Amino acid sequence: MSNVKALPLLDPEAPDAAVPCCPPLSERPFTAEEAERTARMFKALGDPVRLRLFSAVASHEGGEACVCDISDVGVSQPTVSHHLKKLKEAGLLTSERRGTWVYYRVEPSVLAAMGQLLTVR
Q1: What is the pLDDT of residues 78-117, one digit of tens each?
Q2: Three-state SS at 3
Q3: Among 7, 16, 35, 109, who pairs with 30 as Cys (CB 3.0-4.6 Å)?
Q4: Are the C-beta atoms of residues 68 and 97 closer than 8 Å to each other?
């Protein structure tokens, strides 16, 4: 059993709607809980390899990428798997196994929620 918490970027009642975990940075100061949730997301993206992997998945044709197509980031395959796992734990990626390969996806609503967080109102 895992004790990993996923970021609540999306409203489970409306999975297609982008619901940011927190208000835009310019709206008001974050509460301690909002800051904690947001920090977990940015911490996951704070590693250059993870950011490259996240970008490779997000920009891949069709919105999803096979791990076989994105593993050329200058580290070994076990390290790629570790970083992809961290991105999944942060709620930034989803995955699906198809045969021997795993396909990763960044849901458009996750990108929209991240963008809303950084929007100036």
Answers
A1: 899 999 999 998 888 999 999 999 999 997 777 877 787 7
A2: coil
A3: 35
A4: no
Distance (Å, rounded) from C-alpha 85 to C-alpha 94?
A: 10
CB 79: neighbour CB atoms within 10 A?
Answer: 13
The answer for residues whose C-beta is within 8 angstroms of residue 58's C-beta and 6 or more apart is: 106, 111
With a CB cutoff of 8 Å and minimum separation 6, the contacts of 41 are 7, 9, 21, 90, 91, 92, 114
Q: Which two tokens stand for residue 29?
A: 């100061």
How far is 39 from 57, CA to CA, in rounded Å? 21
Residue 15 confidence (pLDDT): 44
Residue pair 89/44 in contact (Cβ under 8 Å)? The answer is yes
For residue 18, pLDDT over 60 is answered with no
Measuring CA to CA, how many Å separate 37 from each of 12, 54, 93, 113? 16, 18, 16, 13
The yes-or-no verdict on residue 21 having pLDDT over 80 is: no
Neighbours of 42 (CB within 10 A): 11
